[in-house]
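Researcher: Please predict.
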Amino acid sequence: MNEELIVSGRSNPFIDPSLNIWHWQIPLYLFLGGLAAGILFFASLYTILGREEQCPTAVRKAPLVVPVLLVLGLFALFLDLKHKPYFWQLYTTIKLQSPMSWGAWVLMAVTPLSFIWAALNIKEIFPSWDWKFSWLINFEKICRKNILPLSWMIIVLSVILGVYTGILFSAFNARPLWNTSILGPLFLTSGLSTGAAAILLISKSSAERKLFAKIDVLLICIELFLIVHMFMGFLASTQVQIDAAELFLGGPYTAPFWVFVVALGLVVPLILEILELKKIHVPAVVPAILVLFGGIMLRFIIAFAGQSSRWLY
């Protein structure tokens, strides 16, 4: 077992070694982190592309919720720590081989940047907002002047954050279900899809909704491909990984996964968004909520099922 991983709890003495993941904290943290990464990715992408006016929700409005998402996610993670007063020890070292170290430092960087981005666009909600201190006004001017470098930093960090939410599981080789390289790209794609769904949910622009419906259709197709590829990899591997796959292929997680994640969270919103693109009216709120629901169920079910997946001795 890799002693550097968070889930083993051995390199981080303040983590509960049992990683009581049957509780809600870790899956919620992974979902909120992926959602925040997805929103930040699109905000920075369309800023880099110079399409702020065509995508006002993606660039200005949706990112206002990201600091809240990140703070709630970090709080959920904090609640899961057994020795809470020692969380700061994560920031006394950098270990490139440790997923937890990567995650801690990426979150340390992306959280203040998300607050800065939200502050730059706070007038979208409070038009009369005015900074009272001259240094804040000067800081805002500096940030606006350097918006492209800021966007590039955020887009890179958001991708790392999205992949990290899956690598946190996949690097843990003691659980066969989690020990697959597919979880990184799968959780990244899911995070981007939930980010697109959140923008769809908030946007009032029909052109912007149409754009993000197209993006979400593509992301859902990629997500379905990755899920199929994951199971194909399991079924072509060792017996313990075949057993892990069978948890979803006739085992106890078959109905929850295929109904809540695949059917309601992916296939149904895919069909609804295609119908909307074909000019058959579908309320945008319905597929958006289903995608968000599917995203959080994916994290919970993968987290729960991983606890039932183990090597044979």
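Model: Confidence is low (pLDDT under 50) at residues 1-22.
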